[in-house]
Design brief:
The protein is mostly helical. It has helices spanning 2-6, 13-57. It has a domain at 12-54. It has 2 helices and no strands.
Length: 65
């Protein structure tokens, strides 16, 4: 175990390729699913916040005469 910590390049070549493929799959899932869901949630949350604030405080602009 100590030998592997001293030299991180001791992994077999097949395992390196397998790790790279797994990392690419995880990256694709994060890029295609997770980040878009987070982005939609943030934008939707901000829109909801603005909508609720306008319901409570009224629309922006000068007061009506």
């Amino acid at each position: 175990m100590v030998d592997m910590l001293d030299n991180p390049n001791t992994q077999p070549v097949k395992q390196r390729g397998s790790n790279r493929r797994a990392e690419l799959i995880v990256f694709a899932i994060i890029g295609a699913v997770v980040w878009p869901v987070i982005a939609v949630g943030v934008v939707g949350g901000y829109g909801f916040l603005v909508w609720m604030s306008q319901l409570i405080l009224g629309p922006p602009g000068p007061p009506g005469t």
